[in-house]
Amino acid sequence: MSARYVIGIDLGTTNSVLAYAPLDDPQAPVQVLEVPQLVAAGQVEARQTLPSFTYLASAEEARAGQYDLPWQQGADYAVGQLARQQAAMQPQRTVAAAKSWLCYSRIDRREPILPWATQGELERISPVEASRRYLAHLIAAWDEAFPDSPLSRQRVVLTVPASFDASGRELTRESAQQAGLPEDAILLEEPQAALYAWLADVGDNWRRRLKVGHTLLVCDVGGGTTDLTLIRVDEEDGELALRRVAVGRHTLVGGDNMDLALAHAAGELFKEKGHEMDVWQSVSLWHACRLAKEALLSSEDVESHPVTVLGRGSRLVGGTVSIDLSRSMAQSVILDGFFPHCEADAKPLRQRRSGFREIGLPYESDARISVHLAAFLAQHGGDEAAEEAPGAAGGRATHVLFNGGVFKAEALRQRVLEVMTGWYGPDAAPRALGSSDDLDFAVARGAAHYARTREHGGVRIRGGTARSYYVGIETAGLAVPGAPRPLKALCVVPFGMEEGTEVAVPSEPFGLVVGEPAHFRFFSSAVRKQDRPGDLLPRWGEDELEETDPLEATLEAEEAGGEEFVPVTFQSRITELGVFELWCVSTESDRRWKLEFSVREDAEEVAAP
Questions:
Q1: Buried b (16+ CB within 10 A) or exposed e, 72-87
Q2: Among 488, 486, 454, CA closest to 470
Q3: Element (H, E) at 17
Q4: Which runs of consecutive H residues, i.e. helices, occur in 299-362?
Q5: Residue 430 lies in a domain
Q6: Which terminus of the chain has a smaller tally of CB atoms within 10 A, N or C?
């Protein structure tokens, strides 16, 4: 069966979306799939977003069939709207933020660890499994709506954060293949997908709005993360071209933090009325403040918004407790707390670490998104790749494309522009590009549009890999008791290496043990763009290289059971699907070995040498 549709899937931290368009009609609008899901026990409704939550039902609930779906009977879990609601009542049974765990290399993401704070013998699942369930639900919903065109036979693009390293991308692909996505599904960076959605909306008019030398900032703040990307306008063969030149790191701060901050402020108002929130009510208040935030910041005509939670205690059973949250308070908490005015050279604060701390996601200690933006632009905005052009402001961001549910609020978009105008001055103030009508769907829509451009042609964003990659090489020398051998870092993939290309890494041969497990420490960098394949770094700064999952393999020896020390060089390849492959090539024979990613088993924090 040949493909009939292009499909874009946004596997989001907070919500997941599927968009599609007919493959044979380049002019047909991209649509969003209505996804049937449980909104209450035994009640199924179709919604355009699938909340990325999993509720792990008890055995009694499963036997009662409360979580059955048209395509799934006897289910012992639920994903989507009902699962999100259960987060307020049964947080110990609800999995959230699985996507953020996929790129956290200090834990084994294939192990059942979620919900993270669960105690006792309650069921847990892995981040990979949780992601698989969201994707499997979307696949089942599609197949139910289009039985003659199963999703496994369509052209599919799945989005990932630009900040994901090769390991996070590989685990996302693993979840996708386990769910039933086609093996040739393509991974696309989310900020690029958002820009593709804008390109689909404006058509060829984009060439009138962007000129050679302009630099576009994609500022994507979703429910759980902030993702920053710089894209420059170049010229190739006399035509305008777009090239992604920088990505930010994975920053765990977003709309959920804002809702929680607003909930804390609202909690103080409840206290003034004599109502102390218990744990259950606090979670419910968190969700209620999300709606209040969107209402208060989206319109200047709304001066206050009621926030209501169910009452608790003998006097309030069956009743409710309410307060009015003012627009001025919401602006103070959100605008001044998360988007304060700051200097262009501001840097996020690093709190001193406690000697003891819980193991968990590395949430940002500094929630000021404007400060993270300043640090990102200071690090990347003046790259040598920038070209001076009228209005280019010396490589600074000349335009901003907002994405993510947080920026539904006009007040937040305006605050970001105000902050950046303070950095650049009014004569070089960045201009906002028109955002999609609904930012919840832009990434999925853009992914579907990108899939169609691959079939029919159209403007493409170039950029290749968003990071440089390195293999750690242990140095030879005398052993010192209690001290590990120093490491050097060999660059095997340069920043920007294009999909569908490969490179033989020029270097002296390095020894490789075969016949027993071989362990390679692996590093990446989003800031060292000057390194070329074969460059060997004897040392590096603390913020220059990040250690990610190791590469491990038991490489076959020529004779069974034998052990050899084989001199090898490296060959790197980026497949058309954006997957990184690293090969060890013997210098003495025609043998070669492919190294596979594996999940880190240790939890040690590794410092730069």
A1: eeebebbbbbbbbbbb
A2: 488
A3: strand 15-22
A4: 327-338
A5: no
A6: N
Question: How many CB atoms sit inside 10 A of residue 588's CB?
Answer: 9
In this predicted model, what pLDDT tens digit does every residue of 486-534 receive, in sequence order?
Answer: 889 999 999 889 888 999 999 999 888 787 776 778 898 888 989 999 9
Question: 339: how many CB neighbours lie within 10 A of its CB?
Answer: 24
CA torsion, ordered 455, 460, 462, 466, to nearest 10 deg: -80
What is the residue range of 493's domain? 468-597
Q: How many other CB atoms sit within 10 Å of the CB of residue 499?
A: 17
Q: Return the H-helix or E-strand segment holding 380.
A: helix 369-380
> How confident is the model at residue 312, as a pLDDT?
58
Mean pLDDT for the chain overall: 84
Question: What DSSP designation does 252 have?
Answer: -
* 254 falls within a domain: no
Please identify, among 122, 155, 188, the residue that sits at the C-terminal boundary of a domain.
188
Distance CA 168, CA 597 (A): 10
When pLDDT is averaged across residues 77-95 and rounded to a whole number, the result is: 86
Query: Phi then psi for 399, rounded to 5 degrees?
Result: -140, 155
CB-based contacts of 357: which residues, under 8 Å, 6+ apart?
A: none
279-325 pLDDT tens trace: 667 767 877 787 788 788 777 788 898 888 776 554 444 467 788 88
